[in-house]
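Table S2 (text version). Query chain:
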Amino acid sequence: METHPDIVAMRNRHEMAERATSTPKAQAVEALALLTGVYLAASPWIAGFQNLSALAVNNLIVGIAYALLMSGGFGRAYERTHSMAWAACALGAWTIVSPWVVAGDVSTTRTVVNNVIVGIVGLLLGMAASAIANDRGPSRGERGRSMP
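Corresponding structure-token output:
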């Protein structure tokens, strides 16, 4: 049973995902992304614009979503969840433009600087996670070969 092609392929996929998540680069991206999401969620109170309720709620929701998305909470197998990294890129881009898009007068210097910097960091971390996800190791043909 252990040599059945489906079980061997499943084991290879699991090992590949484990190698991708256990590299120092992937762990660093994951940790920085978690910190970025937590900071974004708390930024209205840290940077002092909690009175601008629409943007504060936006940052809280987007920050929590980003932290959960990028911290591995939804996808340990990077080869199947690299699209989540692109969703994190979209959240980073949204964070950049949100001071101008969110209803109300929220475009103060403090909010713009905070969201642009955090959005750029989030966008770059999402792109880094996507690059790690696309670096899958051996090609499909090489995985199919039996090892001596």
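Notes on Table S2: The CA atoms of residues 89 and 126 lie 5 Å apart. The first helix runs from residue 5 to 21.
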